[in-house]
């Protein structure tokens, strides 16, 4: 049976504001996921998946989920990288990113993809 490994990198970009700057932020972070083809196509090789998370107030925490299982958490007040590698069996899978900003707003984004058998 063939397995697929994913390498996930999260880049959280902090706000440019200083401590003296007051920020009104009522929107959750923006989460952009790249590196996965459409769910209608099938993965046969290792893929690098990239997330870019940005927010006006700064990014407090980013959680990664693979098939509803918590795969890891990254925290930072500045730029951060989080790498996760997991072998996936053939079939349909979900990759989720939950990002929380410095004032508590939350964004959750899910992408679906398929892994092909050998």
SSE layout and pairings?
Layout: E1 4-13, E2 30-34, E3 42-43, E4 47-54, E5 59-66, E6 69-75, E7 83-88, E8 91-101, E9 106-115
Parallel strand pairs: 1-4, 3-9
Antiparallel strand pairs: 1-7, 2-4, 5-6, 5-8, 8-9
Cα gyration radius (Å): 16 Å
Please list the strands of the largest sheet in the order they lie side by side. 3-9-8-5-6
Mean pLDDT equals: 75
Fraction of residues in helix: under 10%
Query: What is the rounded distance between the termini?
Result: 7 Å
Percent in strands: over 45%
Supply the number of helical segments: 0
Order of H and E elements? EEEEEEEEE
Describe this structure in words.
A hairpin with a 2-residue loop joins strand 5 (59-66) and strand 6. The chain contains no helices and nine strands. A five-stranded mixed β-sheet has the order 3-9-8-5-6, with no helix packed on it. It has a four-stranded mixed β-sheet with strand order 2-4-1-7, with no helix packed on it. The model is unreliable at 77-83 (pLDDT under 50). The protein is 0% helix and 57% strand. It is elongated.
Question: What keyword list fits this structure?
Answer:
57% strand; four-stranded mixed beta sheet; elongated; 9 strands; mainly beta; 118 residues
Briefly say what this structure is.
This protein is an all-beta fold and 118 residues long. It has strands at 4-13, 30-34, 42-43, 47-54, 59-66, 69-75, 83-88, 91-101, 106-115. The N and C termini lie close together (7 Å).
């Amino acid at each position: 049976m063939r397995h697929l490994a994913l390498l996930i990198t999260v880049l959280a970009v902090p706000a440019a504001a200083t401590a003296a700057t007051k920020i009104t932020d009522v929107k959750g972070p923006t989460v952009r996921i790249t590196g996965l083809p459409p769910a209608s196509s099938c993965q046969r090789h290792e893929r690098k998946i990239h997330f870019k998370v940005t927010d006006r107030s700064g990014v407090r925490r980013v959680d990664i989920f693979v098939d509803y299982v918590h795969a890891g958490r990254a925290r930072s007040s500045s730029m951060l990288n989080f790498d996760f590698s997991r072998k996936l069996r053939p079939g349909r899978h979900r990759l989720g990113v939950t990002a929380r900003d410095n004032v508590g707003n939350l964004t959750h984004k899910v992408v679906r993809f398929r892994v092909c058998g050998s």
